[in-house]
Amino acid sequence: MIKRFSISDVNGLVRLYNESMREDPDFRPLNYEEFQYRYLELPYETIALVSSSGSTIDGGIIADVDPLMEKKFGRKISVVDLMVAKKDNFLEISKSLISALEQSLKQLGVEEIQFHFVAENMKDVQEVLFASGFEQSRIWYYMERDVEQIDLPDLPSGFKWDHIRFRGKYANARKWLECHNKAFETHYGMRPLRYEELKSYLFEESFDPTGYFGIYEIGKRRFVAQCSCEVDTKLNEYQMASKGVIWTVGVLEEMRGRGFGKLLVMKAINWLYSKGVKRAAIHVDSLNERAFNIYSNLGFKILRKRLFYSKTL
Question: What is the pLDDT of residue 168?
Answer without folding.
Answer: 94
